[in-house]
Amino acid sequence: MKKLILHSDQIAGKTQVEDTAFELFGLNKPKIAYIPSQSDPTRKYFNEKVEWYKQFGVSDLLYFDIDKEYDESKTDELLKTDAIFLSGGNTYYFLNSLKKRNFIPLLREYVEKGGVLIGVSAGSMIMSKTITITTIDTDINGDQNAVNLKDFTSLGLVDFEFFPHFDEKDGEITRRLIEYSKEIDSVIYACRDGDGIIVNGRNIQLVGEIVKIIKGEIF
């Protein structure tokens, strides 16, 4: 049964997503693997996540690089973990690396076999069928497609599109999301930092104040 956790961002003092999601593991101290969107040579961002998960009694995180420090021999160890964490960062770069290493089918199979997939920002967006939604705010504060990625198809683990770091006060982003929703058949969930979505099989649980956009209408 599919088990996914989609964060906009993890914020100190807001642990409702984790408090709910940890029930998916069925373990007190799951082994979690961390895949960065691009190499983290000083382990700055990895160590931040190590500290984050310590508050839940989890300190056993595996760093697995699919970028400059890629080591294929560690793949078996990766797939034996209880959960895989996909970090935030540049969505185009991350998806390009996953495709280059042929990790799209590998992660799909991991989820099919019961592994939990956790995403933050870009890592959450990659769980959708496509990352096209990334293009709506490139000129404001979004990612730059420096790798010249042409194929935006992604993991396809959910049938909705996920937009992180949503701020309802940003009228231009809201307008673009509404216009984009008219062009697609999928639901858009716009998520504020600290909130998230938990997918457990066919059940979708919205944690926090998440905006739902369908065909130009906001709910």
Any overview of this molecule?
- Helix 2 (44-54) links the parallel strand 2 (32-35) and strand 3.
- The protein has a 7-stranded mixed beta sheet with strand order 3-2-4-5-1-8-9, with helices on both faces. It has a 4-stranded mixed beta sheet with strand order 6-7-10-11, covered by helices on one side.
- It has helices spanning 16-21, 44-54, 75-79, 91-100, 103-112, 122-125, 171-181, and strands at 3-7, 32-35, 61-63, 83-86, 116-120, 160-163, 187-190, 196-200, 203-207, 211-214, 217-218.
- The two termini are 28 Å apart.
- The chain is of the alpha/beta class and 219 residues long.
Labels describing this entry:
alpha/beta; 11 strands; Rossmann fold; single chain
What is the mean predicted local confidence, pLDDT? 94
Strand tally is 11
Low-confidence stretches: none
Gap between N and C termini, in Å? Answer: 28 Å
Tell me the β content.
Answer: 15-25%
User: Approximately how much helix is present in the residues?
Assistant: 25-40%
The strand line-up of the biggest sheet is: 3-2-4-5-1-8-9
What is the CATH domain class? Alpha Beta
Oligomer: single chain
What's this, in brief?
This protein has 219 residues and is of the alpha/beta class. The protein has helices spanning 16-21, 44-54, 75-79, 91-100, 103-112, 122-125, 171-181, and strands at 3-7, 32-35, 61-63, 83-86, 116-120, 160-163, 187-190, 196-200, 203-207, 211-214, 217-218.
